[in-house]
Structures are given as C-alpha cells and as structure tokens.
Amino acid sequence: MSERVTIIYIEVEREIDFYYQMQQIRVEQQLHLTLDGIATANHQFKLHHVLDVSHKPFSFGGGMLYLHTNQGVFTYKIEEDPSYFIHTYNSFKTKL
C-alpha cells in the first residue's frame, strides 16, 4: 500500500524591493505523509523519528501544525483542518 496524504503549509518570505520597501511574499508548500515518513520543502523525517503530530487552532481559522521529532519540534502554519492528516499519521504509526 502506497498511501500518501498531503497538507498545505504557508511560509512567509521577506524581501527588499527596488524601492527599499519590505515585501512579504506568501509561499505555499506541501507536507507529505507516507508510510516511510514525512517530507517538507526543507526537511525529511523517517516515520519512526516523528514522535507525535499535534495541532493548535486559531480563533480566526487555520492554526499551527506541530511535528514532534527526535530532532525537536517543527512548526508549520496551516489554513485547513489537519484532522485527516493527524488521523492517518496515527494509523501509520500503529503499523510500525
């Protein structure tokens, strides 16, 4: 079985434009969950190195998704409900 679950997370990049004005550029990235692990634009984690996945919702929508790993906690700003992603992570962990 090669199931793959994806959730979008937001990164904000800051740049100085031609007129020396600070510009904030919103970049959407993908967080991929497979039986092998979790991959982001900048990191890859084996599933057995991810200790937990949790979520802190914001009152105005969206929230933060936390990956608790053996390398520390990694935080991702999300705008969609991560329930399916977290449920799938938990079911994958039970298969290890």
Provide structural commentary.
This protein has 96 residues and is mainly beta. Helix content is 14%, strand content 54%. The chain has 1 helix and 7 strands. The two termini are 14 Å apart. The relative contact order is 0.22. The model has no long low-confidence stretch (mean pLDDT 93).
Give the tally of β-strands: 7
Q: Biggest β-sheet: count, sense, barrel?
A: 7 strands, antiparallel
Q: Number of DSSP helices?
A: 1
Q: Which runs of at least 5 residues are low in confidence (pLDDT < 50)?
A: none
- What spatial form do the alpha-carbon principal axes imply? elongated
* Average pLDDT level: 93
Radius of gyration: 15 Å
Could you state the order of secondary-structure elements as H and E? EEEEEEEH
Strand content: over 45%
Strand order of the largest sheet: 4-3-2-1-7-6-5
Structural class, from secondary structure content? mainly beta
In whole angstroms, how far apart are the ends? 14 Å
**Portion in helices:** 10-25%
